[in-house]
Fold this protein.
Amino acid sequence: MSRVKQAMIETLSMFDRDIVDSQYTDVEGYHLYVKYSLELNIEAGDEEGARSYLQFVEGVAREAERLSFEYRAQLLEVQNDKLHVLFPGGADEREQEMVDFCLALHALATGPLRVFVGDSLRSMKYAATHGRAIVISTGIEPEDSMVSLGPAANDPAKKVYSGDVESGWLYYRKRPKDVPWVPVNLMVSPMLTKVANEKVAGTLEILSARGFVANRAVSLPSTSVDDPLTVQGFVMRCDLDGFTKQVQEAFESGDEMQVQALVERFVQIMGYAEAFAQNAGQYHFNVSRLPWAGDCTNMVLLPENGYSIARLSVPVKAAGEWYGLRSDAMPQTNEKWGSLLHQADWLVSLAGGGEKKDEANGWLLVADVNSRSRKFRIVAGWGSRRSLDAQDASKKFTNDTILPRSDAFALDQSLRSLFSECSDTPSYYRSNGLSREALGQAVERVSYTKPYVTPSIKTPDPKSYYDDVGRA
């Protein structure tokens, strides 16, 4: 019996061991997504706003974990704009506990935790679906991921982002389709006052986190929300467009071997980001991994030669290398990375920002949030929020690379010409089909300019910023 199959058929005892102890866990339960939205002056504002944002996110995460312990649940993900909580067990058995959890968390988030962000908290939305999913864990470090594959995990994630859920409401259902959503008003429930009185007591606990290490031996000091790490770079998000449909089809097929093959294939796909990080050195930037958000991998790109120089080329170099990696062979095999994608493909977005006051000029705050079983990494700043917005900036096409206008305009002209304005969101620009070959052609169009030097100093002719693009 394979290691994957053995792990998949194990019965999960959520209260004897954490789900993170097993790389693969086959579990039935409610998948709850909590989405919070704040004003841009907090999410994508200056350092003071970003610090307030980190404090709020950590506070919500810490209270969600405490409530998870009380309500026999598991906090799986803490992303920049959402939480993911699993309530293992039967649909009827866990229904009331899941609702009570939401009541308590909403009372906390809109009550004592609001001190961090005040009126900038725009909404708190909740959606949950019961069913089966395969939970994949890569570890317990801040950059590690917990990904849930299955319709029961996809369904509420789509719902909470759909625009159908009002702030302060929970929508849930007992299977992923063919049953209506049950709405629960978390703001006017008669339980609210009782829950708030019982759960709000206590002081918000702010814990320090352990070290934060970037790729290619770049070691950064340990961080906490009280003292976050400040870095300058780009946030890059790569969404595997079309993979959700494959997950849906595998689970609906009733074929366990097909489900097993899908899980094994996704774990291999997660290695794509590792291979990309290993190749980053030739383009003079480092890669710091962030947790996957479903089938979307996230990372921070840290330029070696200064942020201003990096704005001329790094967003395009990074996207071109990401797409170009599809034609490379996977380690210890002759198969190409692209063979894992089947009918799915990538959609890439990046954001850093310019020198305008509201764009942060690439500055990001990084903090790690400790939980009982693992650590979660959160990144705050203009680049983090805008790279997320860019994923929804236009009608999506696979092989697209999306940049905010300021980052597109900061590119060298030869690379800027590869982008055009998004038809329905003019503040973002898109390029389709970026590749190593496309970058090579752009290099040939780069004009060499010789900087002013004092006549008495002999210097070699300057090299283009793009000499390192492509492969020998």
Remarks:
- The mean pLDDT is 79.
- The two ends are 43 Å apart (CA to CA).
- The domain at 1-201 is CATH 3.30.70.1230 (Alpha-Beta Plaits).
- The chain has two domains: 1-201, 208-472.
